[in-house]
Amino acid sequence: MVTEFIFLGLSNSQELQIFLFVFFFVFYVGIMCGNLLIVITVASDSHLHSPMYFLLANLSLIDLCLSSVTAPKMIADFFSKRKVISFKGCLAQIFLLHFFGGSELVILIAMAFDRYVAICNPLRYTTVMCGNVCVGLVTAAWGTGFLHSVSQLAFAVTLPFCGPNEVDSFYCDLPRVIKLACTDTYRLDIMVIANSGVLTVCSFVFLIISYAIILVTIQQRPSDKSSKALSTLTAHITVVLLFFGPCILIYAWPFPIKSLDKFLAVFYSVVTPLLNPIIYTLRNKDMKTAMKRLRKWNVNSREKS
Ligand SMILES: *[C@@H]1O[C@H](CO)[C@@H](O)[C@H](O)[C@H]1NC(C)=O
């Protein structure tokens, strides 16, 4: 019976551990601050109370949760000789990873839908993207994440583990954990590809087509109006590529590339969630003005008190 799993981690070298610790610690603090800043800015500034920014704030919240599933444990593990996680902890990681990942995927689709209506059907924007629809989309995101995660985990909990318990990574995820089971896992591998893999590939194709349609629509407009829309869209598309790229390679690529695997996992858990706030906050004018207002308001209220 296996009661715990052991992570082999990113590297064995002692000097490298310290470097990696500092690197990931800084990244994780950046993820926390950056994404919290977006959530707070959107919540506190009435200029940003629109579906696009609500969805963006939700995306940031999910990013924050998503990287908190793996990063803190990984950072703490840099200094422990045996990087152990309990069986239940491992299942929890898998569950939360797919829960937040699935939700993020639907939020990204909702953001594309929002832009599609705003750009291709601007006259109907306020009626289509009313408050209820927005709340509905967010609820659908969490619901989909939950269903997806439960459907994946339902198979994993019944797997027999009888000895091998070394996970060659720094967190638990299905493709790696399934490999350790003492049974023929061929059908399970197919199941992961059919669920996570198909979900990511289909959503990705759908999103790329949607953004292509939006871009074509923008091209037909006078250029002064289209430049702002274009910069928003570039941010969206960059985030989509960064999120789905690693996802597709991890879940849908049938021939795992061993050396690339860990790198993708790092990318997925600490790089993408950090780039999100950078892309949106540094490039988005409305966001930047809102942050300036927030700072001014802060300074003013401090002077008064
Ligand atoms: C997420 O979206 C919903 C619906 O628009 C909104 O009410 C909520 O404030 C958003 N959450 C965050 C953290 O901004």
Note down, in words, how this protein is organized.
This is Olfactory receptor. Keywords: Cell membrane, Disulfide bond, G-protein coupled receptor, Membrane, Olfaction, Receptor, Sensory transduction, Transducer, Transmembrane, Transmembrane helix. InterPro entries: GPCR_Rhodpsn, GPCR_Rhodpsn_7TM, Olfact_rcpt, Olfactory_Receptors. The chain crosses the membrane at residues 18-40, 52-71, 91-113, 125-143, 197-218, 230-253, 265-283. The chain is mostly helical. The chain has one domain: Up-down Bundle (Rhopdopsin 7-helix transmembrane proteins). The chain has ten helices and three strands. Helix 1 packs antiparallel against helix 2 (51-77), helix 1 runs parallel beside helix 9 (258-283) and helix 5 (131-156) runs antiparallel to helix 7 (186-219). The relative contact order is 0.14. The structure holds 2-acetamido-2-deoxy-beta-D-glucopyranose. The site of 2-acetamido-2-deoxy-beta-D-glucopyranose has 10 residues, from helix 1, helix 2 and helix 5.
